[in-house]
Amino acid sequence: MKTPFFNLPKKLNNVATAKTGNAPMRLRTGWGILFLFFLLGCDKTIVEPTLEAYAPTNLDEKAGTWKTYVLTNANEIAVTAPNATSSPEYRAELTTLKNTVSALTPEQRKSVEYWGAGSTFRWNEITRELAARYNVPPASNADGKYPVPDATNPLADPKFPFANPPYTARALAYLSVAQYDALVTAWNYKYKYNRPAPSKTDNGVATLLPVTTLPAYPSEDAVVAAASYTILVRMFPGEVPFLEAKLTECKNARYWAGMNVESDVTAGEALGRAVGAKVMARAATDGMGAANNQTLVAGFAEAAKTRGIKETWVSQEIPLRPPMLPNYGAVLPWNFAKSVLPTIRPVMPWVVGSAEWQKDFAELETINKNQTRQQARIASYWSDGAGSYTPPGHWLREAGNLSRRYKLSEVCTARALALVSTAVMDAGIACWETKYFYMTPRPQQFGLKTSIGLPNFPSYTSGHSTFSAAAATVLGSIFPDEATRLTAAAKEASDSRVFGLIHFRVDCDLGLVHGKKIGEFAIARAKADGSGL
């Protein structure tokens, strides 16, 4: 998948396409290209494109009736009725708001612009950035052992969490579910109380963002901010000061933009915190606490041998690193019961030394000797290894960008992200259950090397393939005009693991099949959630 020109960082885009009036003047000569990269080489700063606020194409007025994930329904958490717009209390809030907007600083205006891209979108982006920051495997100590990150001392070395792909998938799923359940509840009360935006009540209120007929109470942005904060301080406990600052900025941006009075935001924050607490209660009992149970590994290997796996996976790191999250396959899924996992588990792959194995290994040997530049590019692009926000983050970025491109409402954006992220987490659970059920070796146990990082867990099936097929399947259902492109992207992500000599072909092909089945469970939920979408 080639990176399209319009997705390049803004600095590169602006230098590569200088504009005179309305006519683009492109750099056409070899000297121009050299000059371009000279300029970029002098300044390493990457300036991301500005994301403009938009009025959604649909306000989704009935979203308060949509099916929630953790809450029983949108009435489970009470939100008290607001003061009437004619009340002295509300009129005083309007006066304060007008005074605030009239005295904005340039920094406050920048915050309005940043959060105007959408609170659900921005908090998802923040979570991916945190995942990348914490996606650092612990190093071995002088005794040749790997210390385990400690949640009670998260900033000690190694930092907690190690945001590997399963951890990142889980963090994104809980974040998105909390945002979605909170916004469905908010929509319920918005249309129950129907208090309009401040500028609809008083045309003296200046606004910096598009104003619609969406009721203002409770504030949807405050709801998202508080729900997100409640999840993320538990997922990334070393980042509390950073997250508190983001929470405050997100709430204040609504005042600075003239979009909400104080009572809108206060009610939204209380609702978001309450929903976040209920979602985290599920997280406390989903089995993640036992996901790294290393005592199970020997038993998994012996059981795999009884199933016909002659040679089981062994870590190739020196010193030997404990396998990554061997019991993650026992974590509670979102879109189907645990009992479904064995029924959708891929069949046993080939046996080492069989004709099928020899065919797959021969393909890897050919790539090893004659890897094309295109194969190397694809392997690198999709590697999503240490220091990245992993394959789950890669696909949630795609989901967020598509939600903006199609101008979804805040609640519909949250729905899209929740559907994708829960499918991706389910894909991780199902994939890890399969990996440790069969315990098949990676190509590196047979002498092949890889330059894109060696995952420390069994080979079959491919996590990249399973994550990608699940995400692409769900996104293609939500955005049908994108389905062909997304399916091709998932196939390329899958192929990248063969091109990088990380996986055998069977790992990837059946991982795609597995992921598609998992995505279809999320689609079934979407069709029954009452949205009509």
Structure, explained:
With 533 residues, the chain is mostly helical. The protein is 54% helix and 2% strand. It has helices spanning 10-16, 30-42, 88-102, 106-115, 119-134, 165-193, 198-201, 220-235, 240-256, 262-283, 297-306, 341-344, 355-370, 373-381, 390-405, 410-438, 463-478, 483-499, 505-527, and strands at 17-20, 23-26. It has a two-stranded antiparallel sheet. A hairpin with a 2-residue loop joins strand 1 (17-20) and strand 2. The two termini are 29 Å apart. Residues 1-47 have low confidence and may be disordered.
**How large is the count of helical segments?**
19
The class by helix and strand makeup works out as: mainly alpha
Sequence of strands across the biggest β-sheet: 1-2
Q: How would you spell out the order of helices and strands?
A: HEEHHHHHHHHHHHHHHHHHH
Sheet with the most strands, sense and barrel status: 2 strands, antiparallel
Shape: elongated
Overall pLDDT score: 91
- The share of residues in extended strands comes to under 5%
**Secondary structure: helix percent:** 40-55%
